[in-house]
Amino acid sequence: MMLTFFDTNVLVYLFDTDSPEKANRARAVFGEAVEEGRFVISTQVLQEFFVTVTRKLAVPLSVVDAEEAVRGFAELSVTPVDVPQVLAAIGRSRTMQISFWDALIIEAALSVGATRLLTEDLQHGCRFDGLRIENPFL
């Protein structure tokens, strides 16, 4: 099965009332991936999601609503971030000139065998060891 790894920004758009077009697109790709059993995220994504939706949205979610969303995502497929991934991300960020956090997302996606990474943060169409970067909002 071809897994699709979701970066934090795609999940945040599910709750962003200031970006209705992106919210609609995020709902479509999220719904499709969940329905087909291809959705996967990491514990890093859960952490970043909680902070972003409670502090950085124009209309932030309450802590209770954000926790409910995190619990909902956690019922799907979540992979933990481990020390080997952190070390690999340090190396990838250094050699590829990308942020550590983006490199850690890539390492988590690769660790579960994902073939797609949906994100706004990396160049659309790039490949990292069999993982294709896709910006669902283009």
How would the blueprint of this fold be written?
Blueprint: E1 4-6, H1 8-13, H2 20-35, E2 39-42, H3 43-55, H4 63-74, E3 78-79, H5 83-96, H6 100-111, E4 116-118, E5 127-128, E6 131-134
Parallel strand pairs: 1-2, 1-4, 2-3, 4-6
Antiparallel strand pairs: 5-6
Helix pairs in contact: 3-4, 5-6
Pfam family, one: PIN
Cofactor: Mg(2+)
Binding site for Mg(2+): 7, 102
Give an account of the 3D structure.
The protein is of the alpha/beta class. The protein has a single domain, classed as Rossmann fold (3-Layer(aba) Sandwich), CATH 3.40.50. The protein is built from 6 helices and 6 strands. The protein is globular and about 40 Å long. The relative contact order is 0.19. The mean pLDDT is 97.
Q: What is the element string, with H for helices and E for strands?
A: EHHEHHEHHEEE
Strand content: 5-15%
N/C terminus separation: 25 Å
Radius of gyration: 14 Å
- In CATH, the architecture is 3-Layer(aba) Sandwich
Structural class designation:
alpha/beta
Number of helices: 6
Task: Give the count of structural domains.
Answer: 1
Q: What is the number of E strands?
A: 6
Q: For the record, what CATH class applies?
A: Alpha Beta
Question: Biggest sheet, open or closed, and with what strands and sense?
Answer: 6 strands, mixed
Strand order of the largest sheet: 3-2-1-4-6-5
Portion of residues within helices: 40-55%
Q: Which term fits the overall shape?
A: globular
What is the CATH topology assignment?
Rossmann fold
